[in-house]
Amino acid sequence: MNERKALLDAIAIHAAEDTPRLVYADWLDEHGKGDLDKATAEFIRASCLGRNHPTGYMPRKAYQWLHDHWHRLLPLTLDLHVRRWFVRDPIAEEVTTDLLWYRSGRTLNVGLWMPVKSWGGVLGWHWLDVEFNRGFAQWYEFRDVDVFDQVRDKLKADQPFARAKRIPVRDGYRGW
Questions:
Q1: DSSP string, 80-96
Q2: Which domain holds residue 136?
Q3: Which of 79, 80, 137, 168 could form a disulfide with 159 if both were Cys (CB 3.0 to 4.6 A apart)?
């Protein structure tokens, strides 16, 4: 078993404790690769230190960090967003768009402009809600059954503890 997996397993086993998370942040500082690892270490520290608030809220500093740096925690997921494409009306024209997003507390709502295979590759907005807590995404919800699998797989690579709140199916949702 590699060290990263062992540390993530320790976090999962001791989910209510901050110490395994902070040890993982230290390990990421020494052995991490890329900005996702650096961002994860920063967010763990911002959201775990001094968090013994009776309501379970993260420290105020963590909300500001999340507002300013959330995109660093989801790089593979955000790569699904098509930033530039061409339309052909009377003439061909290049169109660009940025991500749409807003934050409400520790939940991010992100709009991804993505192609949908079942629509013949037509682009459309697809909304992803991700709730962060104590260094990681803990829940996500994605409403579009046509692209759920590809978003889930990328999000799982970015955020190993993220779990689906509800899973979209053709006639509604499964879940709670």
A1: TS--EEEEESSSEEEEE
A2: 3-175
A3: 137
